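Appendix C reproduces, verbatim, an entry submitted by the partner laboratory led by Prof. M.T., so that reviewers can inspect both the input and the predicted structure.
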Amino acid sequence: MMDTQNGEEPPARSNDLEAWRQAVSSGRFRKFKAEKIVAAIQDLGLTSDDTVLNALALHISDTMMRILRNAIGRNHRNEGSDLIADVHGQLIEALLKPGSADGKGLRKAFVPRVRFRAADALRKEQKTKQQERSAEGLEEIYVNGPSQQIDPRREMDEGIDVERALERVADERKRLAFRLHMEGFPVESRKSDSISEALGVSDKTASQWIAEVQSLLSKTVGEEI
């Protein structure tokens, strides 16, 4: 049976070492879906053939880096390289821990999981910047007295409230859709790196998920997000 996506025979069972040796030797494995390669790395195990594992792991590592560079722009410290390195390290560690949440996620939906971690890193960076600005604002008030500006403590508290509200969203894909939306990813599938493409759903479904989370946050935080 042929793989209709790439015209190649589908990958062998994830624990079939000899079949993966042949796929690596011929280079055919590069046409396999990332999820299949992740499954092979996890199921063959670290004590398996180093030649096979190294080739598979390097391919997955390079694929992660391309996705992360596309998701994390250069308008960050060190042109985003620090963020990319941190997320890449976390994902490689998770790859080698099949029982972890990210280890399972990479095996089930590789690209969305990598993009999710990129968005999560960007969110944390933004939160840190907001806290730093809030601290600077409090220091300015202490030194120069109050002004007509909004209390920076309120801004920081509202950011924390949003995160607490997001924790109430049980569906991880809906949380991911909203976070990608907050990071500026477009909903429409006709655009590159869209939310609907990352999650494998229609534009309508992605929009509905974002609207649902916005409604919840509006009720919980007390204002429209």
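Residues 1-7, 147-160 have pLDDT under 50 and may be disordered. Additional entries are available on request from the coordinating office.
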